[in-house]
Amino acid sequence: MVTAGVTLPASLPPAGLRGLDAAWSTLVTVPEIDDHGRTFHVLDTGNADAELTVLCVHGNPTWSYLWRAILARAGPEVRVVAPDHLDMGFSERTDSFRRLGQRIDDLDALMAHLRITGPVVTVAHDWGGPISLGWAARHRDQLAGIVLMNTAVHQPPGVKAPGLIRFARSPEVLARATVKTTAFIQGALRLSGSQPPADVREAFLAPYRTSARRRAIGDFVSDIPLEAAHPTRAPLADVAAGLADLGEVPALLLWGAADPIFADRFLFDLERRLPHAQVHRYADAGHLITEDVDVATVVHDWLGDLDAAPTSSLGRLSAPLWAGLEDRSGDDAVALVEMGATGPERTMTFAELATDVARIGAGLDALGVTRGDRVALLVRPGVDLTATIYACWRIGAVAVVADAGLGLRGIGRALASAAPDWLIGVTPALAAARTLRWPGTRIAAASLTPAALRGLGAVATLESVRHDGRDRSLPPPPGARDLAAIVFTSGATGPAKGVRYRHHQAQAQRDALMRLYGIDSEDRLVAAFAPFALYGPAMGIPSVVPQMDVTAPSTLTAAALGDAVAAIEATLVFASPAALTNVAATAAALGAHHRQALEGVRLMLSAGAPVAPSVLRAAGSLMPNAVPHTPYGMTEVLPVADISLPEIDAAGTGHGVCVGPPLDGVEVMIDPLDGAGRPSGKLYGAPELTGEVCIRAAHVRDGYDRRWHTQHRASQPAGWHRSGDVGHFDSAGRLWIEGRLVHVITTAAGPVTPVPIEHAVLELDDVTLAAAVGVGPAGTQQVVVVVARPDVSKPALAPLEESDRVRGMVDVDVAAVLEVPELPVDQRHNSKIDRGRIARWAEAILAGGRMRRL
After folding, report:
1. How far apart are CA 594 and CA 588, in angstroms?
2. Among 12, 161, 263, 512, whose Cα sits 20 to 30 Å from the Cα of 736?
3. What is the three-class DSSP state of 166?
């Protein structure tokens, strides 16, 4: 007990608290508690005939006000009940120390008194987590689901409790911080990622104006079982153990990752205990996640999905990802080539690669890498990366791929989200991992001295892993439904997202590409986009990444491409538009041997961003026997559609970029935009309707890793993938892409898509790149065009005659034209224009700001 208390009756909250409907507040006296009865303040939507009850349980030092948005969003089919714990909020002050076990009993008695007998979903935060789970364990027959936010049921062994909690628990601080002053409450409010408005802060403080009303805040802190002999340790252990019986109960974990109290390690502990749980981790949200995130929408969307039947199916089973490599395991033909500045530096045959994969797989297994473990691969494209990723797949480990194009900060965010168990990296990556505390037990890709290995905090090298696997057998292979990879998006329209692929989905993707382009064992691949090179062994064909900076595709030169093609006598070339642009620009450096090798290429592919026909034509002229193609797709599903240069020419000038008809086995529909530029929610296949492109295929992603709500919104209707791209079908059934949904310009006359404007402006000879963006309030935005010209040295408003030339190329009103030396593009492809950044820059300038560089 922190300090002597007093008894105070329950009361209703004061009127006028922001977001709180007075009709929800009720006082409920439960006679069975403490023999003579106790009175709770309860927020209750009151619809007793509802099909489902949502029981919201707050923690410390909040009260039921925490759940106001969930109550406000409840429809007639859902009843929301959110009690204040006794001695908390506006419930009765009992002058007693109520530990975890007693609080579970209190909640049990309250729910029995309310006669709630139908299905219940519990929603809880902070200490409300163990309390709600204690109730759930007693009422498994009623339990329809559990939602947990920033809470814990277990302190991991060997890990200190959060510093703020240890500080608050110290005898010198406890009473002063939690009872005598409002410091603990004020501190909790500051743990929100975004500071709540003043009136919301006042509402959270409303029940705790006097020290007599704050006593239980200190009791809650005292009841945290940090010591082995603490009386609440056993009841909390019982709650934790009870999670093992909830394996069939739907679960959702919503997590503010910027919480210094319940850090990610508590999320990962709950994931281990509830492996079936759906998860959404918010990188920038804090402890009071309800104040940083629209959790009400997320929770109610999840409730709406509770009875949804699974729609995914394995479809036609195909060979595992490593089958192409196994089929050639006795073949001495070259499988992989690593290129250096002067030509091939390292080669490996199919037989050698198959042996290497087996040794690395067995060695990782011996080291402790088990099926389902996440393995981050921060290794340069080449033999080591390819062999290691196939070894991971073969033993059932999950490859986490966050390529160098994300940059140091992007990689750090990606790894924090994916939380790999193991991290295999080159020396600079391991140094960054140690300095920046990236997660994962470290393995060095390079051979290092024992001292260097210790300095990097690594436990092994790839060479030692290979050695340890020489005489060991491989574990059983994973199943088709097992997770194979988490691949991060480019981050061109926001933080990179981890896209999950199960083995059967990755296999279907491989098969779709092979069918589309008629790839067989006679083909050989040059991949100027490094991740694409990993398809080589899966297809059973040789592959090579040309000499280039893989984080800057525009560094690929014609000579480097020619060297790579010659090294394996390539028949296939894959490169981003930026890479092909520089190849065409540096073609004068090609030697006769380069040109002869390039004549053997039968297929040239370019993707990653809209590809101008002029780029395909210029690069294609260097490969006279190749048919230039541009597949359409994305990290979440590739390929979706495909078109060749002759087909682009036949389609002619249209509204956007023509990507061709959908492939066999791929369904594409359009969700038309309304007047405000939002999808309407209905799918159509009719021509000339502009809207969001929605896709269904066997090789579509499994979902987004630890981003359940993003996945939910991108999967409506069930089984479809909302691409975020905007486009339309023409009368011939060809798909045209007009831009990204987030970049649609919402003018007073209706939505305007950017790509048609940009492509029209690019017809001007002296424009190297163009961006069409919206400036101003949504619904009344003005179209602004920003053009990059080679002769422009600094940003400026375009002269009148140049503005008129741009306006003359488009059929929409253009408010202003700005000129810049270059436009910002994504790091991965060097091709995707960062329209969001450009729009903010243009708006600042047109509002009278300084003409600064982009």
Report:
1. 11
2. 512
3. helix
Residue 2, pLDDT > 80, answer no
Could you tell me which residues come within 8 angstroms of residue 543 by beta carbon, excluding any fewer than 6 positions away?
335, 336, 337, 386, 524, 525, 526, 527, 533, 535, 536, 537, 568
CB distance 162 to 261 below 8 Å: yes
* 683 pLDDT more than 70: yes
pLDDT for the residue 309: 47
Q: How far apart are CA 842 and CA 57, in angstroms?
A: 46
Report which residue type is found at 310.
P
Helices assigned H by DSSP within 380-521: 383-395, 407-418, 427-436, 450-455, 462-468, 503-517
CA distance 257 to 266: 10
Task: Reply yes or no on whether the pLDDT at 677 is more than 70.
Answer: yes
Q: SS3 string of 54-95?
A: EEEECCCCCCHHHHHHHHHHCCCCEEEEEECCCCCCCCCEEC
Q: What is the pLDDT of residue 298?
A: 97
Distances (CA, A) of 807 to 783, 814, 817, 820: 11, 6, 8, 17
Confidence of residue 406 (pLDDT cuts 50, 70, 90): confident
| pLDDT-based confidence at residue 496 (cuts at 50, 70, 90) | confident
- Listing DSSP states for 350-398 in one string gives HHHHHHHHHHHHHHHHHHT--TT-EEEEE--TTHHHHHHHHHHHHHTPE
Q: What confidence category does residue 311 fall into, taking pLDDT thresholds of 50, 70 and 90?
A: very low
CA atoms within 13 A on the CB side of 694: 25
Residue 236: per-residue pLDDT: 96
What value does the mean pLDDT take over residues 142-147? 97
pLDDT tens-digit map of 609-632? 778 888 899 999 999 999 999 999
Of 725, 750, 713, 733, give the one whose Cα is nearest residue 832. Answer: 725
∠ CA(512), CA(518), CA(520), 5° rounding?
Answer: 100
Q: Which two tokens stand for residue 845?
A: 């300038």
Q: How confident is the model at residue 492 (pLDDT cuts 50, 70, 90)?
A: low
| Nearest residue to 424 via CA among 400, 405, 406 | 400
As a whole number of angstroms, the distance between CA 657 and CA 647 comes to 12
Beta-carbon neighbour count of residue 451 at 10 Å? Answer: 8
Residue 101's pLDDT band, with cuts at 50, 70 and 90, is: very high
CA pair distance 172, 475, nearest whole angstrom: 55
Dist. CA 317–CA 326, nearest whole Å: 18
- Side chain identity, residue 823: L
Over residues 262-283, the pLDDT tens digits come to: 999 999 999 999 999 999 999 9
Q: What is the mean pLDDT of residues 53-61?
A: 97
3-state secondary structure of 579: helix
Which two structure tokens, joined as six digits, stand for 585? 């620009």
Nearest to 545 by CA among 321, 385, 324: 385
Alpha-carbon distance values, 839 to 738, 754, 760, 802 (Å): 17, 12, 19, 20
* Alpha carbon 457 to chain centroid, angstroms: 28
- Residues of the chain above pLDDT 90, percent: 83
Q: How many distinct helices (H) and strands (E) make up the chain?
A: 31, 37
Among residues 533, 523, 530, 605, the alpha carbon closest in space to that of 571 is found at 523
Tokens of 99: 């530990």
Residue 308 has pLDDT above 70, yes or no: no
> Is-contact 199 294, C-beta < 8 A?
no
Statement: residue 407 has pLDDT above 90: no
The span from the CA of 727 to the CA of 670, in Å, is 8
Token code pair at residue 710: 């993003």
Q: Say how far apart CA 503 and CA 483 lie, in whole Å.
A: 6
Cβ neighbours of residue 601 closer than 8 Å, sequence gap 6 or more: 565, 570, 571, 572, 573, 623, 625, 626
